[in-house]
Amino acid sequence: MKIAVIGGGSTYTPELINGILEISKDVKVDQLVLYDIPQAKDKLEILYQFSKRLVADRFELLKTQQIQEAVEGADYVIFQFRVGQLKARQNDEEIPLQYNLIGQETTGMGGFACALRTFPVVEEYVKIVDKYSKATIINFTNPSGHVTEFVLNYLGFERFIGLCNIPINLLKMISQICDCEMKDVFVKYYGLNHLTFLEKVYVKDQEVTQTLMQKMKLQLANIPSQEFPQASLEALGMYPNSYLKYYLMKKTMVEKLKKEGTRAERVRQIESDLLELYRTVNHIPPELSQRGGSMYSTAAANLIRDLALSAGTVHIVNTRNNGAISDVPGDYVLEIPCLVKAGKVFPVSLGKADQFALGMVHLIKMYERLTIEAYLKRSKALAMKAMLLHPLGPGVEDVEGLLQEILEANESFIELK
Predict the structure, then answer these.
(1) What's this model's pTM, rounded to 2 decimal places?
(2) Would residue 243 show up in a list of annotated catalytic residues for this protein?
(3) From the candidates 76, 243, 246, 332, which is the catalytic residue?
(4) Nearest 5°: phi and psi at 87?
(5) Among 8, 269, 301, 387, which residue's CB has the most CB atoms within a 10 Å radius?
(6) Mind listing the pLDDT tens digit for each residue in 321-367?
């Protein structure tokens, strides 16, 4: 098996290497190739040398700055790149805040800018993967669900699965509280990436939803209980994804982001410190946990293993709904439980969606599709329409000015007329 990592210079790479080392006990990994762009040459070299020490002689490890070389003949390709690197992320977070709007990497107007910047690179890479391999692409590149919508429904490339680390951490937490293994947990969990809802929980075939909710309070959603009124949680009747705090606590979150500064600033320092550590250590340093993305490597590696083995296990991934949620169109890309079989993912039937969840999913899905059409048609008008539709977007007074600032900050990546 050949695995290619696009964005191999990421400080996440050692954790991914560790995950692939784990699955190499069950599937034969022959070659792992780390690819990154010329601007990340120095980071790629540091990560390659550190990864060599981790891998030893378990499988062949290569690095390259030629995308064709990386993906040619690959069985699996992992996307984990950030277009524009952390400077672009900082812009995504800071520019909306000037308009008293949420500045966030994947949500709201930060996510909007990130998506427009990412689509052309994803489009180019998908074409190259399709030309030189039969690989399945596992995508972590943000905004992951929006990117998956773009690839499956607009590029028409079928071997593409979006992934996020939130579901696997959710399942891990539930299993710890219920004192069971993760494989014993099944959830009615659905929505869009970073806009999901946990409606029911089953452990060893018994529904434990209400008992679990009483025990967990807001731990499960990773939202401080003092910020999210318990009465509102009870009114929802579901556990919200942690990113729902940006939608449901807009005023509080804007004030908090302005006061605490952007996450990108902190991540830049964390990355700098990690790169220094990677030059000398022979093990994954505990400081990596500060970077975020906990268990992302486990999610990616286990999915690759189970796809290769046709394992019949259930993974929560981003793919087309295909009837899983009965009152949502089949072509919506959702984050849902899927059966892994025959090298593919098959959505599990979950029944109807809650009306609140359904309303939010429809609204953000239409925003996603307008944004994609704005990119494909290079249209400022469609971009403004998408921004106005988003509940975290500007009003008509500010939309043109905000779009112009986003375009100026991303002039090397986004071209709209």
Answers:
(1) 0.96
(2) yes
(3) 243
(4) -60, -40
(5) 8
(6) 999 999 999 999 999 999 999 999 999 999 999 999 999 999 999 99
